[in-house]
Automatic annotation (TrEMBL):
Cofactor(s) required, per the database record: heme
Keyword tRNA-binding: no
PANTHER family listed in its UniProt record: CYTOCHROME P450
Organism: Rhynchospora breviuscula
Record's protein name: Cytochrome P450
Record: residues binding heme: 443
Keyword ATP-binding among record annotations: no
Top-level division of the source organism's lineage: Eukaryota
Length: 497
């Protein structure tokens, strides 16, 4: 018996030693691949010979640099296994002409699956079409838009403005992190609109909720998976439950807890009388869908309604601090259209310059800086780039907003006038401005998010001047599914004289 135990122990020791050596060897290979400057174009051979961090403060700026140097606006980076494009013709090809050949793909679904599940942002085929149809019916209804506008207006007047007033009353001595402020505001509004739930995040006397922090962590670490050269690295860490994957698992558990609580509450009180999006969605389905499916819907609503709005508002006021002439023009338009402190939908529709300034801000700082698809079959892009089956193809809105070939020599200028024709806002093709995607997957919440951001901008600028302290510095973005500025954005809140 003792002999058998010794043999088992020897076998386990040998197995552990073999595993350890294999893991170390694998890690070495990954490191070599990560730092190997190998690309099929002369641009990448030149610029991948050093770490991008040595010259660029943001990963997206590095991509922009490479794409600007490319004659076609497209590069292929072997070490990442990715084709990246800022060519509008290629974007239209991917998002419309050959839409079926460029799904999110199983690889992408695997990366974000633990966090987003099979929600609308992480699904293809019948699952995506079903959710798309339901969401389109609800988000397109007049009653939902009216309901959302009422909630946004109430949140602005009852919470956001009083808080800003309290900061302004401190005789210029008080500052606030506006990125944190807008995240709290956006989380409150999206929870009310989507679930009929008030998390009360805009009480800045309280720390950010564990849920909000967990949501940020889950977003950041899910994005980290996408930057890993070999998927087996994060998959192995997840299997062993170590490092970032252990932290991600804990964060998702907290997110799931809130989602499950919301679903239980909706089932308890009944969804037939609710005006929130989740209740309407459950009522439209007219059947008992499982909680896992509803959980994925909840997380998708939160990602779309919180992070993108907060990011868009943060960079808007950052750019406004750098461009006082634009701020003056916006205030002039507000004074012309807004006669009292009551905000009305018709007033927002008439403010074409505000709309243009917001679109211009999103052009330079899109909340989602890039998006990826995986080619289902071999293909050739309009610019002649050959795409092999299974290749990750990324289109890059951040880089596209900085391309002279698309926007002209003044592409780096914050110039709302580029969106106006005889004083009327005139949109450009979504394929040269894919901030809200384009084609069959164009963002269904676009109009709601634009309404919310415009309402905040108009109401704040009618009363206050937000003086961003870092306005002359180039923002550095942290890793995440949406753009988030590292260290926050401190600002003074001054009463508008």
């Amino acid at each position: 018996m003792e002999m058998e135990i010794v043999q088992v122990q020897n076998y386990l020791s040998h197995l552990f030693f073999t595993f350890s050596i294999s893991f170390l060897f694998f890690s070495l290979i990954v490191l070599l691949l990560w730092f190997r400057p190998w690309c099929n174009c002369h641009i990448c051979k030149t610029y991948l010979s050093f770490s991008w961090r040595s010259e660029f403060s943001n990963f997206s700026d590095w991509y922009t640099h490479l794409l600007k140097k490319s004659a076609t606006g497209t590069v292929h980076i072997h070490v990442l296994g990715t084709t990246i494009t800022a060519n509008p013709a290629n974007v239209e090809h991917m998002l419309k002409t050959r839409f079926e050949n460029y799904p999110k793909g199983k690889q992408f679904s695997s990366i974000l699956g633990d966090f987003l599940g099979q929600g609308i942002f992480n699904s293809d085929g019948d699952m995506w079409r079903f959710q798309r149809k339901m969401a389109s019916l609800e988000l397109g209804s007049v009653s939902v838009r009216s309901y959302a506008f009422k909630i946004v207006s109430t949140e602005i007047n009852d919470r956001l403005i009083p808080f800003l007033q309290s900061i302004s009353d401190r005789n210029n001595s008080g500052t606030v992190d506006v990125q944190d402020l807008f995240r709290r505001f956006a989380l409150d509004t999206i929870c009310k609109i989507s679930f009929g739930l008030d998390p009360g995040c805009l009480d800045l006397n309280l720390p950010m909720s564990d849920f909000a922090n967990a949501f940020d962590t889950a977003s950041r670490l899910s994005a980290l998976r996408a930057t890993t050269t070999a998927p087996i690295v994060w998959k192995l860490k997840r299997f062993l439950n170590v490092g970032s994957e252990k932290e991600l698992k804990h964060a998702i558990k907290i997110v799931d807890g809130l989602a499950q609580a919301v679903i239980r509450e909706r089932r308890k009180i009944g969804f037939s009388t609710g005006h929130d999006l989740l209740s309407r969605f459950m009522g439209a389905v007219q059947e008992q869908v499982d909680d896992k499916f509803l959980r994925d819907i909840v997380v998708s609503f939160l990602l779309a309604g919180r992070d993108t709005v907060a990011s868009g508002l943060t960079t808007f006021f950052l750019l406004l601090s750098q461009n006082p002439a634009v701020a003056s023009a916006i205030r002039e338009e507000i004074e012309t259209n807004k006669k009292d402190d009551v905000l009305r939908p018709g007033q927002l529709q008439n403010m074409h310059y505000v709309h243009a300034a917001l679109y211009e801000s999103l052009r330079l700082y899109p909340p989602v800086q890039f998006d990826s698809k995986f080619s289902a079959e071999d293909d050739v892009l309009p610019d002649g780039t050959v795409i092999r089956k299974g290749t990750r193809v990324m289109y890059h809105p951040y880089a596209m907003g900085r391309m002279e070939s698309i926007w002209g020599e003044d592409c780096m200028e914050f110039k709302p006038e580029r969106w106006l024709r005889d004083g009327v806002f005139t949109p450009e093709s979504l394929f040269k401005y894919p901030v809200f995607q384009a084609g069959p997957r164009v963002c269904l919440g676009k109009e709601l998010s634009i309404m919310e951001m415009k309402a905040v901008i108009v109401t704040i600028m009618h009363r206050f001047n937000i003086e961003v302290l870092m306005s002359k510095e180039k923002p550095q973005f942290t890793l995440g599914l949406t753009a988030s500025i590292k260290g926050g954005v401190q600002a003074r809140i001054l009463h508008q004289s």
